[in-house]
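Typical record was shown:
=====
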Amino acid sequence: MAFDIEMIKKVYENLAERVDKARDLVGRPLTLSEKILYSHLWEGNATQAFTRGKDYVDFAPDRVACQDATAQMALLQFMHAGKPRVAVPTTVHCDHLIQAKVDAKTDLKRAKEQSNEVFDFLSSISNKYGIGFWKPGAGIIHQVVLENYAFPGGMMIGTDSHTVNAGGLGMLAIGVGGADAVDVMSGMAWELKFPKLIGVKLTGKLSGWTAPKDVILKVAGILTVKGGTGAIVEYFGEGATAMSCTGKGTICNMGAEVGATTSTFGYDDSMSRYLRATNRADVADAADKVAKYLTGDDEVYANPEQYFDQVIEINLSELEPHLNGPFTPDLATPISKMREEAEKNNWPLNIQVGLIGSCTNSSYEDIARSASLAKQVAEKNLKTKSQFTITPGSEVVRYTIERDGFIDTFDKIGATVFANACGPCIGMWDREGAEKEERNTIVHSFNRNFSKRADGNPNTLAFVGSPELVTALAIAGDLGFNPITDKLINEDGEEVMLDEPTGNELPPKGFDAEDPGFQAPAADGSGVQIIVSPTSERLELLAPFTPWNGENIVGAKLLIKAFGKCTTDHISMAGPWLRFRGHLDNISNNMLIGAVNAFNQKTNNVKNQLTGVYDAVPATARAYKAAGVPSIVVGDHNYGEGSSREHAAMEPRHLGVKVVLVKSFARIHETNLKKQGMLALTFDNEADYDKIQENDTFNFTDLKEFAPGKQITIEIAHDNGTTDTIVVNHSYNEGQIGWFVAGSALNLIAAAGAEAKA
């Protein structure tokens, strides 16, 4: 039986009435995305039609999921909410704090020793507040959610940007910051601007070397890393229904890389098969009864241009395997063009390491297809030219692939199986020699490939591909190798070609595991004590942020003018910094250390205007804070792209930054800044970015009149005595302005809780 089956049945009981009511109000057929949105309104049945990309709407998500790195801060905030138990089903998954180095057993043992304090904290706080806890080694949050919690037509939020993976089972699953999760866990509404809709029509059928991963790699090349911002991507067509459920999950997972709010597919037989294979026949049976409400209306898919804001069509029968990168996940290159592009751009052709697995591509089908290629190494007397690693997505997948002989197959080609955790995908990879910062090429089946992302080496060029393509490239050791057309020379000097990959969608003998790694919470957690040592370097109880004083911000100094791409990896690095995710002051020492200073093209090197000395960004921010001087960060387009990590918003808030002013924001980061009581502003005239000088001081002249839709005026005082006055925009509504006034959204929750107890 599925977890939370009664909750799922209740969603389905209300579904028809709510969707029918919404369809009448809107006055036209509905997409799947609209059906799920309108059926999860906080108010219940819809009373109005909402305008896409304009109206802020309150929703009631069905569940919340948190990974260990973000759960620490989310649950430290939840402690301030004054609630005895979470209001919706919630889970915590220990997957980010396990560093890949030797092998699964060794690395997991080391992680449990090094992060024991954090795991104990998460276990106990989960026990206290009624939260399901998945132990270290149980698997990566998104694979575990797909196997246990995702259900067609549901809505969930998660404190990780790849929460969208659950769209493979027909959900609207959305990545958020911890403060958003606290709202929902506290029983409050969750606010989202009603998304725009991008429809992707898939015709034809995948075959041969082409995989579901190639669909999203192609889409990323079309939309770019910001083309999906503020939109839901909905896939449909014969190509969609012909694809496996886990393949759909892969596509949705990497939809985070185009900035989309989320991605999803309509309910079909592949989802039913997967639900039944993962012991959730009860969910499949319930979904079958309301199946027509779990996909878009027929008229929508017949004439998509009338119902979506943008339509993309991809013929899967003609789609070629792709490699995306380096340094950005939207630089899409068909494999037939890779050698030409590599030579033109001087990308190293020798592949050092091939890595498969991660939350994006670690299904049974992925591993089976890769294993079919690994098996050919011995059969064709080949030798694997690159190092090769596998990161299983869950203990269920790992146990099953070991039982079915795949791990033995990989062992024979010298592969290393890492723990069921994020590992190299998030920089938790202690790669030998990375500290030398030599220029090199790796290929992986992960989702992101920003500079330093995998191994901390800024000169590692990482390319993203499907697991089967990565496996073939690792065997060849050559970035320009095209397995469709190229031959390899085996150990006998003979020319051989790799056969096309094959593999079962689901394990013929079913999934299995001796211990999936789940800990159910106590029925009554009121007696559970949460202990955080005041001397801990890993955990720190939070103090509320200070409310706005009602005055204009004046005398604010420029902390940094970030040049070019500035992702959450640049603002708050992962890797070794993950150990401080529960300690706001300690992790703030990584704030913006990866951002490039526009004035000297250096990282972590900015001018302290109080002393005239160049110093690290966090040190300079602390100096301003100690002197009572507010500071401001200026950035370029799509600022805050990437992970949902709210630390990238909490750290500047903690270190005295009052304002982040950029050309445009990534959705999650903008919301995170708002939630923490920051001013998230955008240039009305993007050319004003060029007016910002290194020694500038910023004075707000009309912040006292802060209101929805009203521009804000800033006087910029330059050190030569001249000034520029600019107007800037914001997207705050009345409620969000309330967060700013109160000092943070959490301050409002805590105040409401205290008032209710009074």
Summary: DSSP finds 25 helices and 30 strands in the chain. The radius of gyration is 25 Å. Residues 197 and 323 are 26 Å apart (CA to CA).
